[in-house]
Amino acid sequence: MATWPQRYPDESCISLGEYLRTSYSPDCEYVDGRVVERCVGEKGRSVHLGYFAFVFMLHRDEWQVEVFPTLRTRVSRTRVRVPDIVAVRKEAKFGPILDVPPLVVIEILGSEITLSELQEKIGDYLAFGAENICTLDPIRRRAWPAGTDGLHPVESGVLSVARTPIRVVLSEAFAKLVRGL
C-alpha cells in the first residue's frame, strides 16, 4: 500500500499553471512544483467534514461567513493547499481559487496524515495569514487550534473564533456524529 503523500503522475515538477489547468480526482495539492495527494476517503473524516461544513453553512448569515469544503487555496507563489474546510468573511472577494487569507481553516485528521505533514500545512496557513486554524481528530473527538506557538487543545469544549460570534460546542457536535461512524 502506498503511503501518503503519494506524488503523481511521477516525481517530475510541473508548473503552477499546469496544475491549475488540471483536474484531479480527488483534488490534489501543489507544493513547490509537485502534485501531492491529500488524505481523503475515510468515513470518519468524511462525516466530520460534512457536519462542520453544514454547521458553518447553517450559521453563515449569523456568523457573516461563506464556507467552502476542499477549496484550492493559494498560500504562496509555489504552494496551493486544499483545506478540508475554509470559511472567509462574507465580504471577501476572490476568483476560482482562494487567494486571500481565510478567517477559518479546518483540517480533519486521517489515518495517513503525519505530524510533520500537518505542521507543514499549518505553517503554510500561518504564513499566508489565515486568522484561525483548527485541527479536528474524528477518532479522539478533540480539536486543536493552531498558532505560531503550536497546537493547543480546546479545553473549554467550545471551538470559538475570537472577535466573531462563531461557536461550536464540540461535545454536541461529536455526539451527533457518533451515529454516522
Structural class by helix and strand composition: alpha+beta
Strand order of the largest sheet: 3-6-7-8-9-10
Number of helices: 5
Low-pLDDT segments, ≥5 res = 1-9
CATH classification class: Alpha Beta
Q: What's the main sheet like?
A: 6 strands, mixed
CATH superfamily: tt1808, chain A
Q: So, CATH architecture?
A: Alpha-Beta Complex
Quaternary organisation = single chain
Distance separating the two termini = 24 Å
3D architecture notes:
- The chain is of the alpha+beta class.
- It is built from 5 helices and 12 strands.
- It is globular.
Short description:
With 181 residues, this protein is of the alpha+beta class.
Secondary structure layout plus pairing:
Elements: H1 16-21, E1 29-31, E2 34-36, H2 43-58, H3 60-63, E3 65-69, E4 73-76, E5 79-81, E6 85-89, E7 104-108, H4 115-128, E8 132-137, E9 142-147, E10 150-151, E11 158-160, E12 167-169, H5 170-177
Parallel strand pairs: 7-8
Antiparallel strand pairs: 1-2, 1-5, 3-6, 4-5, 6-7, 8-9, 9-10, 11-12
